[in-house]
Amino acid sequence: MKPIITASQYASESAGPRPPVLLDVRWQLGGPNGRPDYESGHIPGAVFVDLDAELAGPAGIGGRHPLPDPDEFGAVMRRAGVSRDTPVVVYDGGQGWAAARAWWLLRWTGHPDVRVLDGGLATWTGDLQTRIPAPAEGDFRPAPGALPLLDADGAAALARSGLLLDARAAERYRGDVEPIDRVGGHIPGAVSAPTSENTGDDGRFLAVEALAVRFKELGADRADEIGVYCGSGVSGAHEVLALAVAGIPAALYAGSWSEWSGDESRPVATGPEPQ
Q1: Would residue 230 show up in a list of annotated catalytic residues for this protein?
Q2: Which residues, in sequence order, are CB contacts of 90 under 8 Å at separation 6+?
Q3: What is the pLDDT of residue 275?
Q4: Which helix (H) or strand (E) holds 88?
Q5: What is the 3-state secondary structure (H, E, C) of 150-177?
Q6: pLDDT, average across residues 62-89
Q7: In the predicted model, what is the mean pLDDT of residues 47-65?
Q8: Structure letter (DSSP) for residue 133
Q9: Tens digits of per-residue pLDDT, 4-41?
Q10: Sign of the torsion formed by the C-alpha atoms of 43, 47, 52 and 57
């Protein structure tokens, strides 16, 4: 199943016999909570999900956005109307990171039918609504492990044995700047692969063929295993999604740089090369 869906495809499915559950996950790193934007207008039927509070656990040694407790995540999804046999579509304000985080969590916990609205809310040409829906309780029960997950040791090993992609901006990878975490740089052996290069100017994913070429040039065709990390496991989920669009499976290091750099015993590489 293709992991993304266009606005026109969603509109058609929402009017059909098996309409998807729709989740609105508008979020910005360091920005205001997305709930007010949701309340001022959202795609009809969409239920708001708070990334910081509901798609992540408390910040700490596991990073800025560690994975949420599976049982708590399941309760959030059931309240949103998610059932195992019901399709789910997720969208955000257009960047795609937050929607990809929700996509990854649902897929990792075993939901078989989850797609991201390609290009986000900006691609929706229909009416918006302000009415807050009250969906019937869903029956989704998380079963973690359906997608591969890396811890810090696993990421370090994969950087040497396979291909570990760093989805952050290139200047953070090089260590030129670090606006958020303790220190700049990257995991030794990781390859710079900014998430921003997976999409066009319109915020939509590049064509499958273009994504396949991009990841081949990064070494995906020569690696038996591929992993991705970012700052805190959010934009990295978007890169895992981009790889999935290209038909390439990849693991996510959810703790990412915020966890890695918070441990002073972990080595840090700087500069443009993996090292």
Answers
A1: yes
A2: 22, 23, 25, 99, 102, 103, 106, 114, 115, 116, 117
A3: 87
A4: strand 88-91
A5: ECHHHHHHHHHHCEEEECCCHHHHHCCC
A6: 97
A7: 97
A8: P
A9: 999 999 999 999 999 999 999 999 888 889 999 999 99
A10: negative
Q: How far apart are CA 152 and CA 256, in angstroms?
A: 8
In this structure, what DSSP letter does residue 144 have? -
pTM, full prediction: 0.97
- Looking at residue 265, its pLDDT comes to 96
- Helical (H) or strand (E) element with 78: helix 70-79
Task: Name the token pair of 19.
Answer: 């309409």
Maximum CA extent, the chain: 55
pLDDT confidence of residue 94:
87
User: pLDDT at position 258, please?
Assistant: 97
Name the catalytic one among 147, 152, 226, 230. Answer: 230
Q: What are phi and psi of 116, to 5 degrees?
A: -105, 135
Provide the residue type at 124 as one letter.
W
For residues 198 and 250, give the distance between their C-alpha atoms in angstroms, rounded to a whole number.
15
Burial class (CB in 10 A: 0-12, 13-18, 19+), 178: middle
Residue 273, token pair as written in the block? 């090369």
**At which residue do the structure tokens 């499958």 appear?**
208
Per DSSP, helices labelled H in 4-50 are: 7-14, 35-40
- pLDDT the model gives residue 215: 98
